[in-house]
Amino acid sequence: MKLKTTALLFASLLVLAGCDQAEKSAQQLMGQAAEAAKQAIDDTHKAAEQALSDATGNLISQKEPKEDDEKTESSSQEI
What is the distance between the alpha carbons of residues 18 and 42, in angstroms, rounded to a whole number? Predict the structure, then answer.
């Protein structure tokens, strides 16, 4: 009877140790997945900013002289 009890306790310890190792592995995988997701979001954000910059680049450069004209007009109006 003692042998069966000892074997059962030993088996329980092995199962618990295995569960602990599985939990650590799962946490490590989740951490790696979170890092990959963050990197993908950062890359997507950079690509979107670049696309927006490319798409509006000509518009912004065309508006700048107009803004300068408005500034000179408003400064002459202030005097």
Answer: 36
